[in-house]
Predict the structure of Cell division protein FtsX.
Amino acid sequence: MRAQFVLSEIGVGLRRNLTMTFAVVVSVALSLALFGGSLLMSDQVNTMKGYWYDKVNVSVFLCNKSDAESDPNCAKGAVTEDQKKQIKSDLGKMSVVDSVTYESQDDAYKHYKEQFGDSPLASSLTPDQMQESYRIKLKDPQKYEVIATAFDGRDGVQSVQDQKGILDNLFGLLNGMNWAARAVMALMLVVALMLIVNTVRVSAFSRRRETGIMRLVGASGFYIQAPFIAEAAVAGLIGGGVACGFLVLARYFIIDNGLALSEKLNLINFIGWDAVLTKLPLILATSLLMPALAAFFALRKYLKV
């Protein structure tokens, strides 16, 4: 097969159906940009999980005098020195515990003032109203229930709180947004495939006389189909290139410059350029193969070659 003939037919086909070709390029670009974005979002969530789950603490809050008057868990009064020693000793014996840090009422008051010093409530608080606590770092953040079971309801313990629960809500929201993006991506892929099939069929119909002559002179089925498949593949590849450009620009302007979230949100460990660059070949390959396969199956039925 002459490559020059195939290339000329591709150019003719793309020019004849310029509007539909543009629609294919745009739909493929948007759907694959969403596809790449959803993959990067998954990487970002996993990176954040690995970063934050390693830092979460379980907090065992101890009863103070104020709690003894208002909290049923502290009905037996404020925590005693013996109870604190026993709690610390028991924590040190647990195999799931990596380290234990004691926070006094004065330390808790200082931390509260640092974080919420502008709050109207901060001016009315005193150190004796704050709670002493043990901050526990676990070897496995998933083992929170071991601590909760051992210390919830114990004399001198007001509550056991797991910071992982707060993070789980955040990651649940991020995962929900990611699945919503994937649903939109799937819808856009369906639209892109429908446009590709229609574009190929219109192109084949507009050249039905040429394909008929080619069949009469004994041209093979693949020889007849190749220009149409190549047209779809080229249009898809252009859309894939645009999608890759979207992802690179989004990473650059949202994280590095423009919004510069990496500077404004120092507490978030953002994905690097390596995560973006490793997705680009997959997007380009999908943009090439998806339209080509769609055109191939559409032509088998339409041209009956």
Summary: The domain at 57-140 is CATH 3.30.70.3040 (Alpha-Beta Plaits).
